[in-house]
Amino acid sequence: MTDLATRIAALPSEKQAALIQQLKRKQLNQRNMVKPSPSEKWIVRYRPNDQARLRLFCFPYAGGGASVFRSWADGAFEDVDVCGIQLPGRENRIGEPVYTQLTTLIQTLASVIQPYLDRPFAFFGYSMGALISFELARELRRTYKKQPVHLGFAAFRAPQLPNPNIKIYHMPDEVFKVVMRADGIPEQVLQNTELMQAMLPTLRADYELCDTYQFKGEPAFSCPFSLYGGQDDVRVNQVDLDDWRIHSTAPTSLMMLPGPHLFLHSAPDLLMSAFANDLARSVSEFSSAIKTRQEGSYAY
Q1: Number of alpha carbons in the 13 Å side-chain half-sphere of residue 286
Q2: pLDDT at residue number 264
Q3: Is residue 300 part of a domain?
Q4: Checking phi first, is residue 91 left (phi over 0); if not, alpha (psi -120 to 50) or beta?
Q5: How far apart are CA 51 and CA 123, in angstroms?
Q6: 298 falls within a domain
Q7: Is 37 a catalytic residue?
Q8: CA distance linking residue 205 with residue 100, whole number of Å
Q9: Pairing with 115, which of 8, 11, 30, 186 sits 20 to 30 Å away (CA)?
Q10: pTM for this structure?
Q11: Cβ count near 179 (within 10 Å)
Q12: What CATH number does residue 47 fall under?
């Protein structure tokens, strides 16, 4: 939602007001509708490719929607079906009840995503999305005995590390804005009162989901990891990222890119090309291993 908010904040005031009112009406209409969300709402495929060698699921940061990864479907990923994960409360799902507990969200996501795991798959999670994708991969391993061929995590500390920040999801708006500012939310968004009123419920829910997370130890994955951080990120440093390594027995790469916490926007091409190269190597190695073993299962 923060990328949408940035675009709205850049519009003339009269257009801003009209769009914000549309968002509010949509929120109200969605609250009055009681029906389950089909899988198409959760998984956005901008260029569906059912013949692709691999399916990549991308998980956005707090407040963000699947459109954050729209360019990835047109970018450097060859023979990959790029799927953006769309959580309730943002973009085309604005107004739907949001999740505040990770365990509940993971159980829902596992059942939604399972039918799409008919080929090798990988996850990429950004900030909050890193935590969600990590725990979802664990749930899929426990429940369905399926594992990804590659995991990419960006802008989030290793999950076993204690949260060094105070819990802010219940804090007053002004305190909440301080953290959002540190995360790189544009000032024109933070100063737009109506826009913030539309965004805050979803953002608070996302922060609560992260702030109340409790790590539990499980065996490491056997697939490679790719880790990415922002050189100017004041919340997640290189050491925080490096500690992800204990969760994989395979090679793990770490790259620091120019920009703050939301370097996804300040260095988009660098991030996309770096992960595309890492993913291509994993797919090639995985395909060679499968051919050698002559096994029908793609799970690591």
Answers
A1: 25
A2: 95
A3: no
A4: left
A5: 18
A6: no
A7: no
A8: 5
A9: 30
A10: 0.85
A11: 17
A12: 3.40.50.1820
75, 198, 214, 222 from 86: Cα distances, Å: 20, 18, 23, 27
Residue type, 186: P
List, in order, residues 6 or more apart from 32 with CB less than 8 Å away.
Answer: none
User: Is the residue at 268 inside a domain?
Assistant: yes
Q: Which of 13, 67, 111, 127 is catalytic?
A: 127
pLDDT along the chain (300 residues), means of 10: 55 55 51 55 94 96 94 89 96 93 98 96 98 99 97 98 87 85 80 85 94 97 98 95 98 96 94 96 78 51
Dist CA 162 CA 244 (whole Å): 13
**Within-domain flag for 299:** no
Q: What is the pLDDT of residue 247?
A: 99
Q: Which amino acid is at 253?
A: S
Q: How many domains does the chain have?
A: 1
pLDDT of residue 34: 37
Nearest residue to 226 via CA among 289, 155, 173, 294 = 155
Structural domain for 263, as ranges: 2-293
- Closest CA relative to residue 127, chosen from 99, 154, 152, 98: 154
CA atoms within 13 A on the CB side of 144: 22
| Helix 193-211, helix 2-9: angle, nearest 10 | 170
